[in-house]
Every structure is written in structure tokens, then in C-alpha cells.
Amino acid sequence: MAKAASQKRADSKTADSKSSPSKTGAPPPTPNRERPPEPKRWEAGKDELLQYYRQMLLIRRFEERAGQLYGLGLIGGFCHLYIGQEAVAVGLQSAMEPGKDSVITGYRDHGHMLAYGIDPKLIMAELTGRAAGISKGKGGSMHMFSVDHKFYGGHGIVGAQVSLGTGLGFGHKYRGDGGVCLAYFGDGASNQGQVYESFNMAELWKLPIIYVIENNQYAMGTSVNRSSAEDQLYRRRESFRIPGLQIDGMDVLAVRGAAETALEWVRGGKGPILLELKTYRYRGHSMSDPAKYRSREEVQAVREKSDPIEQAKRELEAMGVKEEDLKAIDKEIREIVVEAADFAEQSPEPEPGELYTDILVETY
Amino acid sequence: MPIELKMPALSPTMEEGTLAKWLVKEGDAVKSGDILAEIETDKATMEFEAVDEGTITRIVVAEGTDEVKVGAVIAIMAADGEDATDLAAGGGKKPEHDAATATPAESTPAPSGDKVIEQPSDQKTEVHSDVTPHQMETAARDLVASVAHTRDEPDMPAGTEMVRQTVRDALRDAMAEEMRKDERVFVMGEEVAEYQGAYKVTQGLLDEFGPKRVVDTPITEYGFAGLGTGAAMGGLRPIVEFMTFNFAMQAIDHIINSAAKTNYMSGGQMRCPIVFRGPNGAAARVGAQHSQNYGPWYAAVPGLIVIAPYSAADAKGLLKAAIRSEDPVVFLENELLYGQSFNVPKVEDYVLPIGKAKVVREGKDVTLVSYSIGVGVALDAANQLAEQGIEAEVIDLRTLRPLDRRTVLASLAKTNRMVCVEEGWPGCSISSELMAIAMEEGFDDLDAPVLRVTDEDVPLPYAANLEKMALIDTARVVEAAKKVCYR
Predict the structure, then answer these.
(1) Got the DSSP string for B140-165?
(2) What part of B 114-133 touches A (C-beta under 8 Å)?
């Protein structure tokens, strides 16, 4: 095993210098088991970072508008915003191939859809429950899908997407299509039993899946250390022999670097990998969560010190991007979001007959 | 172009709220995400965040003001780059800041509502500043309206003192009273302790009983349902709260295979006195995965007691009975009913018998049988039918298993006509069961086929118009009742 590991390291070094392993990786708990290299922060050029900046800003502005539309009574039910976590979806999904690699997540799903290039108009129109919405208005915020993009939802029951994602990974391997499934879940979902049942099968059958724990520190109102005996969630894979990495989820380039490491591992046929992305949600769990379990200062401190968009902005400025260029992007994003909101507000509701469609595929 | 900040709708059922506290003052610059104010809704205190950047030029509604309608202008903000001083209206007059004495009339320095500042519209206006916040559209509001329009009084001797109480508080009191009496009773579930309950049903229990008896669990329904069941087998009396019964699907194996069958399989040796409780049924626009009525599912299982109360008094009396029962109980609450108020007898120990339906309204022409929030719809329909000369008798089943067939059949013998009203799917439902009972045991009393008014046979859609079509409503009950009366 040790030999194979060093062989692998040598291979990957020649194959791609960008993701070459560092020699300072944490000591493996089982020394003779192959481990992925420590991920390196992605070295993005100006245009690439601008692209990430634009995507993160789109998510931020989209979600702010969604929150506003909720306050106006145009969005109903539950609405879980992604504000603060943008670097995770953008950093990871920028490394994936839409249409080849599959993505699945829970109910906090707007950001993942936007990061996969799904039309903001269709998402916003779903939030307002209109016929033009991506689920024809029948799904709502928590239940959105785009099979064309291989985006498989959008699931309302905590943890369900982990087993479902494992099935998507099973499908990639079964068909041999070279695809990888990216399955997101939260720190709260990481306590569901089906997560571990899935881990076991995924490693046993070497399924091509990247499990991503978006650790935003709070499962609704319960902090990680109040709910998790092992609060370093990337270690949750230990008894399944799945490698796990803990990543700064507020730094889009660190996230992108981790995606490279994970994809190399999984595409190499070595089975699943677990990434824990340390992130933070600025808003309540859903629109009706008063968020009394944390202080306002805590939220404000994260916003001020580690905001993923502000970080990217500072880096872009250091690369010589002018403030007016960034303002122009901001304006352009605002226009996209305004257009989506207008579309979502003005589109008609579904036809009454839609109530009875899509229940079964065939007629019996 | 100034931006009018309007009272937001911060919960699905919010119509008005209290502007509890301003966290900004006139002249403050704010950026997106800053907390502007704390607003108390019908459920909780919420923070109101800035979406746009700018400067607060004027606070229109002072802190401490109650009953601020959703959509009312509460402050004016100058957008980024504008000269805030030009826009400061109200001649520098400050709103009243004494929360104790503030009333909307005293504290609002200018005419309230949308007339505060009349500015010509402008293409650069923030896109939604012309949209007034309103309540989201939902069929749930019609269901709640039926509840609010009608009355359901507990059966008590005349002169019994009553307190007006929400279903939420009645459930809390039931648990607290039983916990005071019996050390073995404890509550466990997601967010039941420090968060005070996702729907605030366990509010205050942590303070009174401490973390040993009010236990926050991780999100791990199968695990804690099993743990609770095991604790019951070992001699404790757990109350397991599911944040909603939709999440109990993760745990249904323990409810049915572990809890319901234990007594039978052990030849009566091993008891399982546990209560599984939480909200059940459709709420407001929460979509297909969060809007199901599990009454028929659990009521199909021998070994379980299934209770689905409607009024606050029944919620209290039956939850107390459930906690005392030696059998496993599935106690199905309804989120839309939590905030509804009813009269609850002010007596020392209000406990109701399990398995007894209640005649909520007497009538001679047709029997409407329902449970949970359907009772409000049936009562509302009965009032409308009375205006058309049809006197409907309304039965609240209250317990779904064992079903009180005697009360149902007695009413059928009196009216000879029956309509089942159920907020749930039609197939293999409580309505189906009632119809079977009517066929098997009440056939000679029937003057017309029994009809059922249920939700449509579809997963619950999210879109407001489709949701309205999918859920039961009063009009359909009235129509069905007239049909069985051949009217």
C-alpha cells in the first residue's frame, strides 16, 4: 500500500503541477493507507477570479432579493437563504462539469443552482410559485431540479440527499460515464443515520462521490458542539476508510483547490471522499427563524472578517482590477436579479389543470 | 430617490406586528445586511435587515408601537449617494421613544400609511419599492378563518370557569402539569429546549425542568425515536417531539415495529408508554414534503393509540391522557391550529378519555364527521348550511384509533346522512374507514350514500392557486352536505 501511495504521488506530480501534493500533509491515522494530498489553494488568474466573484455576487444579490420578496409576501412557506456560504458552491462547482457530473443538495438550494448556471429567472419564478418556475411552481424553494444540468435537487427532508447522492454516484460507476456526484449536506444532517449507511456502501463499492458537509455551525438553532460528539466533522469518515479534508469554506480559492484534490481522487477510481467546508450563514435558518441562539456580534464579526465576496474583492483589487470595474459588475448583477424578480412577479400562476399532472408518468 | 422601508411580512401568518426596537437612528448610514429593527411577529421576535445601502433619513413608526400593519411605511431611507439632509422630512420632529406610552396615534409624527411621503416615481426607484408587502397567498388562511369563525366549547357543567388559551399553550401546560406530577416524564426532540420549540410548544419547559428532562437532540429522528422507545420499555415516560410528522417518516420503523408491537410480542410483559407528538397535516405553502396528514397511516396500526385533537381544551385534556397512558400514543397536532384560541376549563386536572368522539354541534339533518383542523371547516360549513335551512350535526372524532364508532353511528341513526371531512388524501383514509363502518353497521340508517370531502389526490403543490385547489374548503363541504340531503 505504501508503495502504491508513493507511486501515485509521483504520478500526480507529473500529471498536474497545479494540484501537486504538499509534503506537509497531516499524518495519516493509518500510515499504510493511501491518502489524498493536502489540497492547495487554487491559483486563479484575474479573469477566473472575476468569474467566481461574479457568481458569488449573483448568489448574494439573488438571495437578498428573495428575502425581500418573502417580506413582501410574494414567496411563501419555507425559504432558506444561502447568504454567507457562496464560496462553497462556487468554488466546488466551478471544478465540475454540468451535464456530466451530478449535484444534489438539501433545501438550502438556490446557491447551488445558480453556481451551476441555471437561469435565475426560472429559480425566482419557482420561489414565487409561477408556471414559468423550474418545477412549474409545484415544488417551491426546497424542491427544485434541473435534470439537464444533472442537478438533482432540492430535498426537503434533512439528510435524504446523502443516500440519494450515493445512488447518483452508483449510477455514474454503473454506466461508466466518468461522472462524479457532488452531494452537499449540512452539519445538522451529518447526524442522520443514513449518512453513515451511505458512507459504508460508497467506500465498499468505491463509488465516485464527493460528500460535502457545509458546516455553517448551526443546525437551525443548535450549534455543532451541542449536537455532535465529534465536532470535527471531516473525521466522521474515519471508520469507513474514506479520506476527509477540512477546508476554509469562506475562501473561494481554497474551496476550488479542495475540489481539484477531491476530483482527482474520485476520478482516479479510489472511491468517495469527504470534504468539510467551514462556512457561516448570515441569515436565520429559514425566513421565520429569529436566530436568538447566537449574538449579533458573532454574525457581524464573520461578515467583517471573513466574507467570501469581500475577500475575493480585495484580492481582485490587489491584482489591479479597478473599483469601477467591480462596480460595473455589481450593476450588471443587480440588473440580472431585478430582471429575475420582475419575471418571477409578473409570470402567471400555473394553469389549474397542472394540479393533476406529473403525478404518474404513464396512464393505467 | 428615497426608499420607503415597509413593515415586512416575517412569518406566513403575520398580519401585523410590534416594532419592538430600532437599532438605527435618523442619520445613520446602513449597508446591506445591517439589522435595522427588531419586530415581534405572532410567533417570535425577528430582525429586520437592510437590503439596500443608504442613510436613514426618517423613522416614521417609533419603537414600541404595536399593531403595525404589514406594508405600512416604518422609515425612510436615502439611497447611497443621495444627500440625506434634503430628504429629511417631518421638520426634525422626533418620534416618541417612550415604549411604555407609545401608541400608533401618538408616536407617528406624520400621517401613517403610504401617504407619508409622496414622491414622484422614478425609473431609478428600487424595483420593489412600489410593491406593498402583503400576506403571502395561502389556502391555509382560509382553513384558519374557518376555525376563527366558529366555536367549540368544552363539555363542562354550566358555570365552570374558562380561560382563553391557544392550542400551543394548552399543549405546553399539559406537558408541564404531567412533568410536575411524574418524575419519569421527559421531553425530547429537535430544538425543544434552548430554542424553546421550533413552534414554541415547549416554551418555558427548559427553565422549569432543566436539561435533564427537556432534551435537545441532534437531527437524528430514527435514533431518538428508538432511544425514546427504549427508554419507555425500560420504565420512563418519554414525550418525543417531532419538529413535524413529516420528519417522523425517518423514524416510522421504531414507532410501528418497536413501539406498537412490543406489548403484544412480549405477551403483555413489556410496556411502551411513550407519546410521539408534533405538527401534522398541511401548513402554509410549505410544499409536498412538509404537508402530509399521517392520521390514516398510524390509525391503521394495531397497538397504537392515535389522537388528533382540534380545540385547545381537547389538546390539553387528551395530551395529559396520552402521557398517562400505558400504551404508545401518536399525538397529531396541527401547525395552523397552534395559534388559535379556545376556552379551556380552569380546573385542577383536566383530563379527557381517549377513544371518545365529541358532538361539537347538534343537528338533525346531516352528520359531518371530521377531526383536527377539518372540524373548523365542518363547523363553518354547518353555519352556512343552517342559513339554508339544513341543521348539520358536527362530530369531532378526536381519537382516530380506537375510533369511536358508537358516537358516529348514533348520529347517523339520527340524521340518516353523513359527510366525512378530512384534510388529507381520499384513498385509504379515515373517511374510507368511516364509510366502511357506515356500510357494515349503519346501512339501515342510511338515506343517501356517504360522501367524503378531502384534499385532492395529489402531492401538495407549492403554487398558491394550486394549493387552494388541493385543500379542503367550506364550500365543498356545503355542497356535499346538500347533495346527501338531496337539496
Answers:
(1) HHHHHHHHHHS-------TT--EEEE
(2) 127-128, 131-133
B11 and A288 within 8 Å at the Cβ level: the answer is: yes
Contacts of A192 in chain B (CB under 8 A): 219-222, 250
Mean pLDDT by 10 residues, chain B (487 residues): 81 78 90 81 75 86 89 84 48 40 36 33 38 80 91 92 96 98 97 94 97 95 94 94 96 95 90 97 90 97 97 98 97 96 96 97 98 97 97 98 98 98 98 98 98 97 95 97 96
CATH hierarchy code of domain B2-115: 2.40.50.100
Q: Which of A60, A74, A136 to mutate to test the interface with B (most CBs of B within 10 A)?
A: A74
* Residue B221 annotated to the active site: yes
**What residue spans define the domains of chain B?**
2-115, 155-345, 358-484
CB atoms A228 and B12 under 8 Å: no
Hey, where are the domains in chain A?
44-341
pLDDT digits (tens, 9 = 90+) for B304-348: 999 999 999 999 999 999 999 999 999 999 999 999 999 999 999
Which amino acid is it at A363? T
Q: Does B436 touch chain A (CB under 8 A)?
A: no
Query: Which residue of A76, A137, A155 is in closest CB contact with B136?
Result: A76
Q: Which CATH class is domain A44-341?
A: alpha beta
How far does B91 lie from chain A, in Å, by closest CA? Answer: 30
B150 in Cβ contact with B383 (< 8 Å) = yes
Size of interface A-B (CB pairs under 8 A): 196
Indicate the CATH number for domain B358-484.
Answer: 3.40.50.920
Choose the catalytic residue: B96, B137, B290, B391: B290
Q: Domain B155-345 is in which class?
A: alpha beta
Q: Check for a shared fold between B2-115 and B155-345.
A: no
> How does DSSP assign B359-410, residue by residue?
EEE--SSEEEEE-TTHHHHHHHHHHHHHHTT--EEEEE--EEETT-HHHHHH
Are the Cβ atoms of B194 and A293 closer than 8 angstroms? yes
Tens-digit pLDDT profile for residues B457-483? 999 999 999 999 999 999 999 999 999
Contact assignment for B216 to A226 by CB distance below 8 Å: yes
| Packing angle of the helix pair A308-318, A46-71 (nearest 10 deg) | 150
* Single pTM value for the model: 0.82
DSSP character string of B60-109: -S-TTEEEEETT-EEEEEEETTS-HHHH--GGGPPPP--TTT--HHHH-S
